[in-house]
Design goal:
The complex is a heterodimer of chains A (321) and B (275). Chain A is of the alpha/beta class and 321 residues long. Chain A has eleven helices and 15 strands. The chains are: A alpha/beta (321), B mainly alpha (275).
Chain lengths: 321, 275
Protein backbone atom coordinates (compact mmCIF):
# COMPACT_ATOMS: atom_id res chain seq x y z
CA UNK A 1 0.00 0.00 0.00
CA UNK A 2 1.44 3.30 -1.08
CA UNK A 3 -0.24 5.12 1.80
CA UNK A 4 2.13 3.29 4.12
CA UNK A 5 5.00 5.11 2.48
CA UNK A 6 6.05 8.66 3.23
CA UNK A 7 8.08 8.96 0.03
CA UNK A 8 7.95 6.69 -2.96
CA UNK A 9 9.68 7.33 -6.26
CA UNK A 10 9.44 5.09 -9.28
CA UNK A 11 12.13 5.20 -11.94
CA UNK A 12 12.87 8.80 -11.07
CA UNK A 13 15.19 10.51 -13.54
CA UNK A 14 16.35 14.12 -13.61
CA UNK A 15 18.50 15.19 -16.52
CA UNK A 16 20.32 18.44 -17.00
CA UNK A 17 21.10 18.45 -20.70
CA UNK A 18 22.64 15.07 -21.37
CA UNK A 19 23.81 14.54 -17.82
CA UNK A 20 21.50 12.51 -15.60
CA UNK A 21 21.94 13.91 -12.10
CA UNK A 22 19.37 11.38 -10.86
CA UNK A 23 19.32 8.22 -12.91
CA UNK A 24 16.28 6.05 -12.30
CA UNK A 25 15.90 5.70 -8.56
CA UNK A 26 13.17 3.88 -6.65
CA UNK A 27 13.09 5.33 -3.16
CA UNK A 28 10.96 3.59 -0.56
CA UNK A 29 10.65 5.56 2.65
CA UNK A 30 8.26 3.89 5.10
CA UNK A 31 6.11 6.04 7.36
CA UNK A 32 7.52 6.47 10.82
CA UNK A 33 11.05 5.71 9.73
CA UNK A 34 14.13 7.86 10.12
CA UNK A 35 15.62 7.44 6.67
CA UNK A 36 19.26 8.34 6.13
CA UNK A 37 19.86 9.40 2.54
CA UNK A 38 23.57 8.95 2.11
CA UNK A 39 26.04 9.61 -0.63
CA UNK A 40 29.12 11.60 -1.47
CA UNK A 41 28.83 15.23 -2.50
CA UNK A 42 27.49 15.46 -6.04
CA UNK A 43 25.81 12.05 -6.02
CA UNK A 44 22.36 13.51 -6.69
CA UNK A 45 20.87 13.74 -3.19
CA UNK A 46 19.81 17.38 -3.30
CA UNK A 47 18.50 17.10 -6.86
CA UNK A 48 16.38 14.14 -5.75
CA UNK A 49 15.02 16.17 -2.85
CA UNK A 50 14.20 19.09 -5.17
CA UNK A 51 12.22 16.82 -7.46
CA UNK A 52 10.45 15.12 -4.53
CA UNK A 53 9.34 18.53 -3.24
CA UNK A 54 8.22 19.76 -6.66
CA UNK A 55 10.88 22.46 -6.99
CA UNK A 56 12.16 20.81 -10.15
CA UNK A 57 10.27 18.60 -12.55
CA UNK A 58 11.18 14.97 -13.15
CA UNK A 59 12.57 14.06 -16.57
CA UNK A 60 10.99 10.64 -16.15
CA UNK A 61 9.38 8.55 -13.43
CA UNK A 62 6.97 9.51 -10.68
CA UNK A 63 6.94 10.72 -7.10
CA UNK A 64 4.38 10.07 -4.39
CA UNK A 65 4.67 12.10 -1.22
CA UNK A 66 2.59 10.88 1.75
CA UNK A 67 0.55 8.89 -0.76
CA UNK A 68 -0.14 11.94 -2.95
CA UNK A 69 1.07 12.41 -6.51
CA UNK A 70 3.71 15.11 -6.93
CA UNK A 71 3.93 17.71 -8.29
CA UNK A 72 0.27 17.45 -9.35
CA UNK A 73 -1.21 17.69 -5.86
CA UNK A 74 1.59 19.72 -4.28
CA UNK A 75 -0.79 22.12 -2.58
CA UNK A 76 -2.62 19.29 -0.82
CA UNK A 77 0.45 17.70 0.66
CA UNK A 78 3.38 20.12 0.98
CA UNK A 79 1.90 21.86 4.01
CA UNK A 80 2.32 18.60 5.90
CA UNK A 81 6.00 18.50 4.95
CA UNK A 82 8.69 20.55 6.62
CA UNK A 83 11.93 20.87 4.73
CA UNK A 84 15.45 22.17 4.78
CA UNK A 85 16.84 22.10 1.23
CA UNK A 86 20.42 22.94 0.33
CA UNK A 87 21.03 25.15 3.29
CA UNK A 88 18.77 27.69 4.94
CA UNK A 89 17.73 30.88 3.13
CA UNK A 90 16.26 34.02 4.64
CA UNK A 91 15.62 37.71 4.09
CA UNK A 92 18.72 39.22 5.70
CA UNK A 93 16.95 42.50 6.43
CA UNK A 94 14.19 40.81 8.46
CA UNK A 95 14.48 39.43 11.98
CA UNK A 96 14.50 35.68 12.58
CA UNK A 97 10.93 35.75 13.86
CA UNK A 98 9.76 37.95 10.94
CA UNK A 99 11.32 35.50 8.48
CA UNK A 100 9.44 32.60 10.05
CA UNK A 101 6.20 34.58 10.05
CA UNK A 102 6.64 35.28 6.34
CA UNK A 103 7.18 31.61 5.49
CA UNK A 104 4.21 30.68 7.62
CA UNK A 105 2.06 33.24 5.79
CA UNK A 106 3.02 31.62 2.50
CA UNK A 107 1.52 28.37 3.76
CA UNK A 108 -2.19 28.73 3.08
CA UNK A 109 -3.10 25.97 5.51
CA UNK A 110 -1.34 27.57 8.48
CA UNK A 111 -3.84 29.27 10.77
CA UNK A 112 -3.13 32.96 11.30
CA UNK A 113 -4.39 33.12 14.89
CA UNK A 114 -1.75 30.72 16.18
CA UNK A 115 1.10 32.07 14.03
CA UNK A 116 2.92 34.06 16.68
CA UNK A 117 2.72 31.19 19.16
CA UNK A 118 3.94 28.64 16.62
CA UNK A 119 6.84 30.86 15.58
CA UNK A 120 7.85 31.31 19.22
CA UNK A 121 7.64 27.57 19.84
CA UNK A 122 9.72 26.71 16.77
CA UNK A 123 12.40 29.23 17.80
CA UNK A 124 12.41 27.81 21.30
CA UNK A 125 12.79 24.27 19.99
CA UNK A 126 16.02 25.14 18.17
CA UNK A 127 17.31 27.37 20.97
CA UNK A 128 16.99 30.69 19.15
CA UNK A 129 14.44 32.51 21.33
CA UNK A 130 17.09 34.98 22.46
CA UNK A 131 17.87 36.00 18.86
CA UNK A 132 14.27 36.14 17.60
CA UNK A 133 14.27 39.91 17.16
CA UNK A 134 17.72 40.14 15.62
CA UNK A 135 18.09 40.66 11.89
CA UNK A 136 19.20 37.48 10.13
CA UNK A 137 22.05 39.49 8.59
CA UNK A 138 23.69 39.34 12.02
CA UNK A 139 23.18 35.57 12.48
CA UNK A 140 26.10 33.17 12.41
CA UNK A 141 26.11 30.20 10.02
CA UNK A 142 25.04 27.87 12.81
CA UNK A 143 22.22 30.20 13.87
CA UNK A 144 20.92 30.34 10.30
CA UNK A 145 21.01 26.56 10.18
CA UNK A 146 18.98 26.41 13.39
CA UNK A 147 16.52 28.95 12.02
CA UNK A 148 16.17 26.81 8.89
CA UNK A 149 15.25 23.84 11.04
CA UNK A 150 12.81 26.05 12.97
CA UNK A 151 11.14 26.96 9.66
CA UNK A 152 10.64 23.26 8.96
CA UNK A 153 8.99 22.89 12.37
CA UNK A 154 6.53 25.80 12.06
CA UNK A 155 3.51 23.55 11.79
CA UNK A 156 2.83 19.97 12.84
CA UNK A 157 4.35 17.86 10.07
CA UNK A 158 3.92 14.28 8.95
CA UNK A 159 7.26 14.33 7.15
CA UNK A 160 10.47 16.26 7.61
CA UNK A 161 12.99 16.43 4.80
CA UNK A 162 16.31 17.62 6.15
CA UNK A 163 19.11 18.11 3.64
CA UNK A 164 22.46 18.16 5.46
CA UNK A 165 20.88 19.50 8.68
CA UNK A 166 24.08 19.78 10.70
CA UNK A 167 26.08 21.83 8.20
CA UNK A 168 27.78 24.66 9.99
CA UNK A 169 26.85 23.41 13.44
CA UNK A 170 29.37 22.84 16.19
CA UNK A 171 29.50 19.43 17.93
CA UNK A 172 27.04 20.63 20.55
CA UNK A 173 24.62 21.81 17.83
CA UNK A 174 25.02 18.52 15.99
CA UNK A 175 24.08 16.62 19.15
CA UNK A 176 21.05 18.88 19.62
CA UNK A 177 19.87 18.24 16.07
CA UNK A 178 20.24 14.50 16.61
CA UNK A 179 18.21 14.73 19.82
CA UNK A 180 15.60 16.82 18.03
CA UNK A 181 15.29 14.29 15.19
CA UNK A 182 14.93 11.50 17.76
CA UNK A 183 12.18 13.30 19.63
CA UNK A 184 10.33 14.15 16.40
CA UNK A 185 10.56 10.55 15.28
CA UNK A 186 9.28 9.44 18.67
CA UNK A 187 6.21 11.60 18.03
CA UNK A 188 5.60 9.65 14.83
CA UNK A 189 7.02 12.10 12.30
CA UNK A 190 8.84 10.48 9.40
CA UNK A 191 12.27 12.03 9.00
CA UNK A 192 14.18 11.89 5.72
CA UNK A 193 17.68 13.16 6.39
CA UNK A 194 20.40 13.46 3.79
CA UNK A 195 24.06 13.55 4.62
CA UNK A 196 27.48 12.89 3.23
CA UNK A 197 28.66 12.24 6.76
CA UNK A 198 27.83 8.73 7.70
CA UNK A 199 28.59 8.98 11.39
CA UNK A 200 26.02 11.71 11.64
CA UNK A 201 23.07 9.60 10.60
CA UNK A 202 24.23 6.15 11.69
CA UNK A 203 23.14 6.83 15.25
CA UNK A 204 19.62 8.02 14.49
CA UNK A 205 18.46 6.15 11.38
CA UNK A 206 16.25 3.12 11.08
CA UNK A 207 16.58 2.99 7.29
CA UNK A 208 19.31 3.94 4.88
CA UNK A 209 19.56 4.62 1.16
CA UNK A 210 22.94 5.07 -0.47
CA UNK A 211 23.37 7.21 -3.59
CA UNK A 212 26.31 7.04 -5.94
CA UNK A 213 26.54 8.88 -9.25
CA UNK A 214 22.80 9.46 -9.48
CA UNK A 215 21.87 5.88 -8.66
CA UNK A 216 20.47 4.37 -5.49
CA UNK A 217 22.99 1.60 -4.94
CA UNK A 218 21.53 0.26 -1.72
CA UNK A 219 18.39 0.70 0.32
CA UNK A 220 16.92 -0.97 3.36
CA UNK A 221 17.03 -1.09 7.11
CA UNK A 222 20.26 -0.13 8.80
CA UNK A 223 20.91 -3.76 9.71
CA UNK A 224 20.45 -4.87 6.10
CA UNK A 225 23.11 -2.47 4.95
CA UNK A 226 25.42 -3.43 7.78
CA UNK A 227 24.90 -7.08 6.91
CA UNK A 228 26.23 -6.48 3.45
CA UNK A 229 29.78 -6.39 4.69
CA UNK A 230 31.33 -9.75 5.49
CA UNK A 231 32.82 -10.30 8.92
CA UNK A 232 36.61 -10.21 8.97
CA UNK A 233 39.06 -11.95 11.22
CA UNK A 234 41.77 -9.68 12.57
CA UNK A 235 44.81 -10.95 14.37
CA UNK A 236 47.71 -9.23 16.02
CA UNK A 237 50.80 -11.31 15.61
CA UNK A 238 54.58 -11.34 15.71
CA UNK A 239 54.73 -13.69 12.71
CA UNK A 240 52.66 -12.04 9.98
CA UNK A 241 54.06 -14.03 7.07
CA UNK A 242 53.45 -17.35 8.77
CA UNK A 243 49.97 -16.23 9.88
CA UNK A 244 48.95 -15.29 6.35
CA UNK A 245 50.13 -18.63 5.09
CA UNK A 246 47.98 -20.44 7.68
CA UNK A 247 44.93 -18.33 6.90
CA UNK A 248 45.41 -18.96 3.19
CA UNK A 249 45.66 -22.63 3.98
CA UNK A 250 42.30 -22.47 5.83
CA UNK A 251 40.76 -21.07 2.66
CA UNK A 252 40.11 -17.55 3.94
CA UNK A 253 39.98 -15.14 0.98
CA UNK A 254 41.40 -11.60 0.88
CA UNK A 255 44.17 -12.12 3.41
CA UNK A 256 45.87 -8.78 4.07
CA UNK A 257 48.69 -7.32 6.07
CA UNK A 258 47.06 -4.16 7.44
CA UNK A 259 48.88 -0.95 7.97
CA UNK A 260 49.17 -0.31 11.66
CA UNK A 261 48.25 3.36 11.69
CA UNK A 262 46.57 4.62 14.80
CA UNK A 263 47.40 1.54 16.82
CA UNK A 264 49.64 1.15 19.80
CA UNK A 265 52.11 -0.86 17.85
CA UNK A 266 55.59 -2.12 18.38
CA UNK A 267 58.03 -2.91 15.65
CA UNK A 268 57.51 -6.65 16.02
CA UNK A 269 53.69 -6.69 16.16
CA UNK A 270 51.63 -6.70 12.99
CA UNK A 271 47.96 -6.75 12.09
CA UNK A 272 46.73 -9.35 9.65
CA UNK A 273 43.12 -9.59 8.47
CA UNK A 274 41.11 -11.92 6.30
CA UNK A 275 37.55 -12.54 5.22
CA UNK A 276 36.17 -15.20 7.62
CA UNK A 277 34.16 -16.83 4.84
CA UNK A 278 32.12 -18.96 7.23
CA UNK A 279 35.09 -20.32 9.20
CA UNK A 280 34.59 -20.09 12.96
CA UNK A 281 37.15 -17.71 14.48
CA UNK A 282 38.02 -20.18 17.24
CA UNK A 283 38.93 -22.79 14.60
CA UNK A 284 41.20 -20.27 12.91
CA UNK A 285 42.79 -19.56 16.29
CA UNK A 286 43.50 -23.21 16.93
CA UNK A 287 45.04 -23.60 13.48
CA UNK A 288 47.25 -20.56 13.95
CA UNK A 289 48.53 -21.64 17.34
CA UNK A 290 49.05 -25.21 16.11
CA UNK A 291 51.22 -23.84 13.31
CA UNK A 292 53.35 -22.01 15.88
CA UNK A 293 52.12 -18.49 15.05
CA UNK A 294 52.60 -16.23 18.05
CA UNK A 295 49.20 -14.53 18.45
CA UNK A 296 48.87 -11.45 20.63
CA UNK A 297 45.27 -10.74 19.88
CA UNK A 298 42.42 -12.13 17.83
CA UNK A 299 39.00 -10.67 17.16
CA UNK A 300 36.32 -10.50 14.54
CA UNK A 301 35.01 -7.31 12.99
CA UNK A 302 31.51 -7.23 11.57
CA UNK A 303 32.26 -4.18 9.50
CA UNK A 304 31.06 -0.72 10.19
CA UNK A 305 28.41 1.01 8.14
CA UNK A 306 31.23 3.12 6.85
CA UNK A 307 32.85 0.10 5.26
CA UNK A 308 29.59 -0.69 3.47
CA UNK A 309 29.22 2.88 2.46
CA UNK A 310 32.68 3.09 0.97
CA UNK A 311 32.27 -0.31 -0.65
CA UNK A 312 29.01 0.81 -2.27
CA UNK A 313 29.94 4.27 -3.40
CA UNK A 314 33.43 3.33 -4.49
CA UNK A 315 34.79 6.82 -4.35
CA UNK A 316 34.40 7.02 -0.60
CA UNK A 317 33.91 10.57 0.53
CA UNK A 318 35.42 12.18 -2.53
CA UNK A 319 33.31 14.38 -4.73
CA UNK A 320 31.80 12.43 -7.59
CA UNK A 321 33.14 13.62 -10.92
CA UNK B 1 -5.40 23.82 10.28
CA UNK B 2 -8.88 25.24 9.92
CA UNK B 3 -8.76 28.89 9.01
CA UNK B 4 -7.19 29.44 5.63
CA UNK B 5 -5.35 32.69 5.22
CA UNK B 6 -6.12 34.38 1.91
CA UNK B 7 -4.89 37.95 1.75
CA UNK B 8 -2.18 37.48 4.34
CA UNK B 9 0.57 36.96 1.82
CA UNK B 10 -0.13 40.23 0.00
CA UNK B 11 -0.09 42.10 3.30
CA UNK B 12 3.18 40.36 4.22
CA UNK B 13 4.63 41.24 0.83
CA UNK B 14 3.60 44.90 1.10
CA UNK B 15 4.88 45.26 4.65
CA UNK B 16 8.16 43.58 3.71
CA UNK B 17 8.57 45.77 0.65
CA UNK B 18 7.69 49.14 2.17
CA UNK B 19 9.73 48.52 5.31
CA UNK B 20 12.76 47.59 3.30
CA UNK B 21 15.45 50.24 3.31
CA UNK B 22 15.91 50.02 -0.44
CA UNK B 23 12.24 50.85 -1.06
CA UNK B 24 12.41 53.75 1.33
CA UNK B 25 15.56 55.02 -0.39
CA UNK B 26 13.93 54.81 -3.83
CA UNK B 27 10.87 56.70 -2.63
CA UNK B 28 13.07 59.31 -0.93
CA UNK B 29 14.92 59.96 -4.18
CA UNK B 30 11.60 60.35 -5.97
CA UNK B 31 10.39 62.73 -3.26
CA UNK B 32 13.55 64.80 -3.75
CA UNK B 33 12.89 65.40 -7.46
CA UNK B 34 10.15 68.03 -6.99
CA UNK B 35 12.10 69.62 -4.14
CA UNK B 36 15.08 70.02 -6.46
CA UNK B 37 12.93 71.60 -9.16
CA UNK B 38 11.12 73.96 -6.78
CA UNK B 39 14.28 75.13 -5.08
CA UNK B 40 16.02 75.67 -8.42
CA UNK B 41 13.16 77.80 -9.72
CA UNK B 42 12.91 79.71 -6.44
CA UNK B 43 16.60 80.53 -6.37
CA UNK B 44 16.88 81.60 -10.00
CA UNK B 45 16.71 85.35 -10.49
CA UNK B 46 15.29 85.40 -13.99
CA UNK B 47 11.80 84.15 -14.78
CA UNK B 48 11.49 80.90 -16.67
CA UNK B 49 10.16 81.63 -20.15
CA UNK B 50 7.44 79.42 -21.66
CA UNK B 51 9.15 76.71 -23.67
CA UNK B 52 12.25 76.68 -21.49
CA UNK B 53 13.02 73.48 -19.57
CA UNK B 54 10.54 70.70 -18.90
CA UNK B 55 6.83 71.19 -19.61
CA UNK B 56 4.95 73.38 -17.13
CA UNK B 57 8.18 74.68 -15.57
CA UNK B 58 7.29 78.26 -16.57
CA UNK B 59 4.07 78.07 -14.52
CA UNK B 60 5.70 76.95 -11.30
CA UNK B 61 6.48 80.45 -10.01
CA UNK B 62 2.89 81.56 -10.58
CA UNK B 63 1.29 78.53 -8.99
CA UNK B 64 3.03 76.08 -6.65
CA UNK B 65 0.75 73.19 -7.64
CA UNK B 66 2.57 73.03 -10.95
CA UNK B 67 5.66 71.74 -9.15
CA UNK B 68 3.84 68.39 -8.83
CA UNK B 69 3.03 68.25 -12.53
CA UNK B 70 6.52 69.36 -13.62
CA UNK B 71 8.12 66.79 -11.29
CA UNK B 72 6.02 64.01 -12.84
CA UNK B 73 7.08 65.14 -16.31
CA UNK B 74 10.72 65.07 -15.22
CA UNK B 75 10.42 61.72 -13.40
CA UNK B 76 8.60 59.75 -16.08
CA UNK B 77 11.43 59.18 -18.56
CA UNK B 78 14.02 57.92 -16.08
CA UNK B 79 13.42 58.13 -12.33
CA UNK B 80 10.11 56.28 -12.25
CA UNK B 81 11.20 53.55 -14.73
CA UNK B 82 14.39 53.12 -12.72
CA UNK B 83 12.55 52.73 -9.43
CA UNK B 84 9.96 50.38 -10.92
CA UNK B 85 12.64 48.44 -12.76
CA UNK B 86 14.34 47.79 -9.44
CA UNK B 87 11.15 46.62 -7.74
CA UNK B 88 9.60 44.65 -10.63
CA UNK B 89 12.91 43.12 -11.68
CA UNK B 90 13.49 41.97 -8.11
CA UNK B 91 10.11 40.23 -7.65
CA UNK B 92 11.01 36.63 -8.51
CA UNK B 93 14.74 36.96 -9.25
CA UNK B 94 15.34 38.54 -5.84
CA UNK B 95 13.67 35.62 -4.05
CA UNK B 96 15.60 33.18 -6.24
CA UNK B 97 18.86 34.98 -5.52
CA UNK B 98 18.29 34.83 -1.77
CA UNK B 99 17.15 31.22 -1.98
CA UNK B 100 13.91 32.16 -0.25
CA UNK B 101 11.99 31.21 -3.40
CA UNK B 102 12.43 27.49 -2.71
CA UNK B 103 11.15 27.87 0.82
CA UNK B 104 8.11 29.89 -0.31
CA UNK B 105 7.34 27.21 -2.91
CA UNK B 106 7.56 24.32 -0.47
CA UNK B 107 5.55 26.23 2.16
CA UNK B 108 3.62 25.82 -0.27
CA UNK B 109 2.79 29.26 -1.58
CA UNK B 110 1.51 28.16 -5.00
CA UNK B 111 3.36 29.53 -8.01
CA UNK B 112 0.40 31.37 -9.52
CA UNK B 113 -0.49 32.91 -6.18
CA UNK B 114 3.07 34.12 -5.68
CA UNK B 115 3.16 35.62 -9.17
CA UNK B 116 -0.14 37.45 -8.61
CA UNK B 117 0.98 38.76 -5.22
CA UNK B 118 4.27 39.96 -6.70
CA UNK B 119 2.48 41.72 -9.54
CA UNK B 120 -0.01 43.33 -7.17
CA UNK B 121 2.75 44.56 -4.87
CA UNK B 122 4.68 45.98 -7.84
CA UNK B 123 1.59 47.90 -8.91
CA UNK B 124 1.23 49.15 -5.34
CA UNK B 125 4.80 50.40 -5.57
CA UNK B 126 4.08 52.16 -8.90
CA UNK B 127 1.16 53.94 -7.27
CA UNK B 128 3.22 54.81 -4.20
CA UNK B 129 6.07 56.13 -6.33
CA UNK B 130 3.79 58.33 -8.42
CA UNK B 131 1.89 59.60 -5.40
CA UNK B 132 5.14 60.39 -3.59
CA UNK B 133 6.30 62.58 -6.49
CA UNK B 134 2.93 64.34 -6.75
CA UNK B 135 2.44 64.88 -3.02
CA UNK B 136 6.00 65.98 -2.43
CA UNK B 137 5.62 68.40 -5.36
CA UNK B 138 2.34 69.81 -4.08
CA UNK B 139 3.78 70.31 -0.58
CA UNK B 140 7.05 71.97 -1.60
CA UNK B 141 5.15 74.04 -4.21
CA UNK B 142 2.71 75.27 -1.61
CA UNK B 143 5.57 76.19 0.70
CA UNK B 144 7.70 78.09 -1.81
CA UNK B 145 5.14 79.56 -4.21
CA UNK B 146 1.67 81.06 -4.15
CA UNK B 147 -1.23 78.65 -4.54
CA UNK B 148 -4.38 79.91 -6.16
CA UNK B 149 -6.72 79.22 -8.99
CA UNK B 150 -5.03 77.12 -11.63
CA UNK B 151 -5.06 78.09 -15.28
CA UNK B 152 -5.50 75.01 -17.44
CA UNK B 153 -4.05 74.39 -20.90
CA UNK B 154 -7.46 75.16 -22.40
CA UNK B 155 -7.36 78.61 -20.81
CA UNK B 156 -10.07 78.24 -18.17
CA UNK B 157 -9.24 78.41 -14.47
CA UNK B 158 -10.21 76.01 -11.74
CA UNK B 159 -10.07 76.11 -7.95
CA UNK B 160 -7.07 74.64 -6.09
CA UNK B 161 -9.34 71.81 -4.87
CA UNK B 162 -10.31 70.97 -8.41
CA UNK B 163 -6.65 71.14 -9.40
CA UNK B 164 -5.74 68.68 -6.65
CA UNK B 165 -8.39 66.29 -7.93
CA UNK B 166 -6.85 66.57 -11.37
CA UNK B 167 -3.40 65.93 -9.88
CA UNK B 168 -4.78 62.72 -8.35
CA UNK B 169 -6.13 61.70 -11.76
CA UNK B 170 -2.70 62.38 -13.26
CA UNK B 171 -1.06 60.19 -10.62
CA UNK B 172 -3.56 57.46 -11.49
CA UNK B 173 -2.79 57.90 -15.18
CA UNK B 174 0.97 57.63 -14.61
CA UNK B 175 0.46 54.47 -12.55
CA UNK B 176 -1.68 53.01 -15.33
CA UNK B 177 1.03 53.92 -17.85
CA UNK B 178 3.62 51.97 -15.90
CA UNK B 179 1.61 48.71 -15.75
CA UNK B 180 3.01 47.39 -19.02
CA UNK B 181 6.54 47.96 -17.86
CA UNK B 182 5.76 46.30 -14.53
CA UNK B 183 4.48 43.20 -16.35
CA UNK B 184 7.65 43.13 -18.46
CA UNK B 185 9.68 43.39 -15.26
CA UNK B 186 7.79 40.48 -13.71
CA UNK B 187 8.45 38.32 -16.75
CA UNK B 188 12.15 39.22 -16.97
CA UNK B 189 12.39 38.46 -13.27
CA UNK B 190 11.26 34.87 -13.85
CA UNK B 191 14.11 34.34 -16.30
CA UNK B 192 17.05 34.75 -13.95
CA UNK B 193 18.36 34.24 -10.44
CA UNK B 194 20.33 37.48 -10.62
CA UNK B 195 18.07 40.36 -9.60
CA UNK B 196 20.48 43.06 -10.78
CA UNK B 197 20.38 41.58 -14.27
CA UNK B 198 16.59 41.67 -14.34
CA UNK B 199 16.52 45.24 -13.03
CA UNK B 200 19.02 46.44 -15.64
CA UNK B 201 17.14 44.68 -18.43
CA UNK B 202 13.87 46.38 -17.49
CA UNK B 203 15.45 49.83 -17.33
CA UNK B 204 17.23 49.29 -20.66
CA UNK B 205 13.92 48.27 -22.25
CA UNK B 206 12.24 51.40 -20.88
CA UNK B 207 14.95 53.62 -22.32
CA UNK B 208 15.05 51.76 -25.63
CA UNK B 209 11.30 52.14 -25.94
CA UNK B 210 11.54 55.89 -25.44
CA UNK B 211 14.41 56.23 -27.92
CA UNK B 212 12.46 54.32 -30.55
CA UNK B 213 9.50 56.56 -29.80
CA UNK B 214 11.60 59.61 -30.71
CA UNK B 215 12.83 58.29 -34.07
CA UNK B 216 10.38 59.34 -36.79
CA UNK B 217 11.65 56.74 -39.27
CA UNK B 218 10.05 53.99 -37.19
CA UNK B 219 6.81 55.85 -36.57
CA UNK B 220 4.81 52.72 -37.45
CA UNK B 221 6.03 51.12 -34.25
CA UNK B 222 5.28 54.12 -32.02
CA UNK B 223 1.67 53.27 -31.12
CA UNK B 224 2.85 49.85 -29.92
CA UNK B 225 5.58 51.06 -27.59
CA UNK B 226 4.70 50.76 -23.93
CA UNK B 227 6.13 54.22 -23.26
CA UNK B 228 4.17 55.87 -26.07
CA UNK B 229 1.41 57.38 -23.93
CA UNK B 230 3.53 58.08 -20.85
CA UNK B 231 3.26 61.86 -21.22
CA UNK B 232 -0.37 61.80 -22.35
CA UNK B 233 -1.64 63.14 -19.05
CA UNK B 234 -1.83 66.71 -20.37
CA UNK B 235 -5.41 65.74 -21.23
CA UNK B 236 -6.27 66.14 -17.56
CA UNK B 237 -5.18 69.77 -17.79
CA UNK B 238 -7.96 70.62 -20.20
CA UNK B 239 -11.57 71.59 -19.55
CA UNK B 240 -13.50 69.41 -20.14
CA UNK B 241 -11.11 66.53 -19.47
CA UNK B 242 -10.34 64.53 -22.58
CA UNK B 243 -10.21 60.76 -22.02
CA UNK B 244 -8.84 59.72 -25.41
CA UNK B 245 -5.24 59.34 -24.22
CA UNK B 246 -6.38 57.40 -21.18
CA UNK B 247 -8.39 55.00 -23.28
CA UNK B 248 -5.55 54.43 -25.74
CA UNK B 249 -3.09 54.04 -22.88
CA UNK B 250 -5.31 51.65 -20.93
CA UNK B 251 -5.72 49.42 -23.97
CA UNK B 252 -2.00 49.47 -24.68
CA UNK B 253 -1.01 48.72 -21.09
CA UNK B 254 -3.60 45.96 -20.72
CA UNK B 255 -2.20 44.41 -23.89
CA UNK B 256 1.28 44.40 -22.40
CA UNK B 257 0.00 43.03 -19.09
CA UNK B 258 -1.85 40.24 -20.92
CA UNK B 259 1.12 39.25 -23.08
CA UNK B 260 3.88 39.51 -20.49
CA UNK B 261 1.65 38.23 -17.70
CA UNK B 262 1.01 35.11 -19.81
CA UNK B 263 4.72 34.76 -20.56
CA UNK B 264 5.59 35.14 -16.88
CA UNK B 265 2.93 32.56 -15.99
CA UNK B 266 4.07 29.98 -18.52
CA UNK B 267 7.70 30.47 -17.61
CA UNK B 268 7.30 30.49 -13.83
CA UNK B 269 4.84 27.61 -13.53
CA UNK B 270 7.17 25.27 -15.43
CA UNK B 271 10.48 26.55 -14.15
CA UNK B 272 12.93 24.33 -12.25
CA UNK B 273 13.86 26.20 -9.09
CA UNK B 274 17.47 25.23 -8.54
CA UNK B 275 18.71 28.27 -6.64
Amino acid sequence: MSTELAIETTGLVKRFGHHAAVDGIDLVVPRGSVYGFLGPNGSGKTTTIRVILGLASASAGSVRLLGTAMPHDARNVLWRVGALVEGPAFYPYLSGAANLRRYDTANRQAPKDTRIARVDFALERVGLSHAAGKRVRAYSLGMKQRLGIAAALLAPRDLLVLDEPTNGLDPQGTREVRALVRSLAADGTTVFVSSHLLAEVEQICTHVGVMSNGRLVSQGTLDTLRGQTRPRLRIETLDPAKAMKVLDGLGLPDTRLESADGRPDTADSHLVSADLNGVAPEDACVALVAAGVRVRGLYTDHGSLEDSFVALTGEGFDVAG
Amino acid sequence: MSRADGGGLLVSELVTMFRRRRTIALLSVLAAVPVLIAVAVKLSTSDVQPGDGPAFLDRVSQNGLFVAVTALVVSIPLFLPLAIGVVAGDTIAGEAGLGTLRYLLIAPVGRVRLLLVKFASSIAFCLAATVVVAVSGAIIGAILFPVGRVTLLSGSTVSPGNALGRAALIAGYVTLSLLGMTAIGLFVSTLTEVPVGAMAAVVVLAIASQILDSIPQVSWIHPWLFSHEWLGFADFMRDPISWTSTQRDALLQLGYVAVFGALAYSRFTTKDVLS
